Amino acid sequence: MFRDLLGAECSSIPAQSSARKEATPPVAVKSKQEGVEGMSQSRQGEPHAELRREVSVWGSFMWGYADVGADVYIALGLVMAAAHGAASIAFALAGLVYIMVGLAYTELSSTYPVAGGGHFFALRGLGDFCGFIAGSALLLDYTIDIALFSVGSAGYLNFFFPAIRSSGVDMGPFHMNPIWCLESLILIGALILLNIRGIKESSLLNEIAGVADIFFESAIVVLGFVLAWRPEILLHQWQSQMPTLKEFMYGSSLAIISFVGLESISQAAQETKRPATIVPRTSISLILSVLIFATALSTLGLGLQPPDGSEPWQYFKAREGDPIAAMARIIPYVGIIAGPLAALLGFSILLISANTGVMGASRVTYSMSQLSILSGWFARIHPRFHTPARAIVTFSLIAALQTFLSFLTPRVMDTLGNLYAFGATLGYTLVFISLIKLRFSDPYSPRPYKMPLNIKVRYRGKTVDFPILGVIGMAGVLMILFEVLATHTIGRIAGPTWVLLCILYYLWFRRKSGLPVFRSRDRSWESHQVAVLTSAEEFDLLEDYKSALRERDREARAREKVGVHGRPEK
Amino acid sequence: MTPEVNPSPIGALLAVFFVLSFGGVLSWMLRLPRAPTEAAARVCHSVSAVRHILVPVLGTDYSDRGIELACRIGREQKAEIILSYVIEVPFSLPLGAPLPVQETRGKAILERAKSIVEIHELRCQTRLERSRFAGDKVVEMVRAEDLQMVILGVRPRLWPIENLIGRTSETLLRKLPCEVILDAFPECAKPWQET
Q: Which fold is adopted by the domain B52-194?
């Protein structure tokens, strides 16, 4: 249905490239034309694919947690290495910014519960061009996600093979670890094959993995604090191991990667039951849960005594590939089991997270092609497996290339993390601007959740809630983006280059398709919103929306009358 | 080598804080409010969507009670109350004929009615209109301004049931395109009870 609403180009892609393939049978086909006039470009009378709403509150939380919950398995080592004794402060600072990002996403995804996430919000608020830039930043993140989490997953596997971790060969000016690189590439290859064939990963599998991870991480935190944590070590870190300003800036900008992935909940919104009610709850819970875990694990890590007698941050820097397993291992009594268990869990959850990158890339590609900002070529489905094979292969191969190139640098994880933060912060900046713009341009869409701290301003005869926290959040994200550009030596070149190349593609594609290049296509957003809320069964909001539109029309008619009667008679 | 055990009260406190905060977040998330059905949502909104209520006023106690009722219905959604007093001009006079006494009385009645609305801190408009029939004028206003509700406080009549309501009320009930509430004191029911 939404393809039709948004003027689809591609005619055949099913909206089922998700992890919910089992829970979401290929497509729930409906033929619904109501309220879509003015938007449709697809063939009339054709049945339209619509994602079925089956994801519950716990499923929605786990959908996000499978993505975001895994980030700390990677970020802990990187942030410890960069921010030293101030690692938990770096996490808390990034967490503060992320709370605001999360609140912005919560408002937007509950107001517009459609697949697409950040790029849809940017397109809705700022137009096609900005929507495309946000989409390209997201695609960069998804490819890095595939690369980073595959490398991380292999890193946790190497917990059992310490020789691999320390091996390396010199290739001219480069020093690389070929076995770890090969492992990562094999994992990416396996993900490509699985996704092309159409994996039967059900929400149940995600939920089981998520619950196991939550339980295990909680056990590490509780047992670690009770049995092994020493406040004097933490104090010592704060007194003698503080980073320089540049190191701290680098650390806090890397810490943002431990929170990246909220996008998943936004994307799942189109498949979530009662999204306007559930999405705000799961998003806020996810933000708080991840913040609690990230600060707890980093505080715990900085207060543990490493077995080799080094400073804790140095210990975790040396174990950048498997920091959680390394942490679990030094907990008394349980460490001997918890270490390998954490490694196994890290391996599996990071692989699931890498998989969400593959699926996320194909979902964003699909959504972008629906909105005519990307060619439908990417979203066309495989004739036999009925999966968007082209998108899967293209973006996974880009991820494989990124993996290989990053192994040529001295610290592979750091290089990938370096790039990850750029895409995320650019996307978030556009989302914040869209949030503010949409408060003015679309005050009629009911917002079941609104970012707190608003001031009322008059705009074209209407009272609009201006989001102060949105502005603060945007400033926070811009600060992190500045940190990224100032301190990420690779990210500041590769990130903008990627976006620039994508823009060149966009210009070529829009010109070729006969679409306006910098202007947006005409779309009937009101019909779209009515259709979205109807499909979401958010009847309460639907009535609110219709009533707001009626009121607006009534006022417009009243103004017209005044205008007519106010005209002097001849 | 097994790592050394270092139990610390601050560590235990942090562990408890962690469990409570994380548990609190999860339990809040899982306590979902009940979802209204489509019909229920429509019914709720049929009342809360009322943003403009017209109250024809006559200056009687019944009419004042109608204003009060309108204010209470519109309070939650901060509806606008439109108070109208219609001067019925007899056919023997042109519609624009000067009627200073009626106009003065109408203005006074509207002022009193406005003071009731102001107690409730709702937006209010007053209209002094002229027409041959008050009922037709009210219908015309509702149609022209797309108003959503009309509330009329009516005087109890001790007549037979077919004449229970007056001409204006009957016109409103027959012709209005929106919701109409005729508010009458319980005394209105007396003729039924007595018969």
A: Rossmann fold (3.40.50)
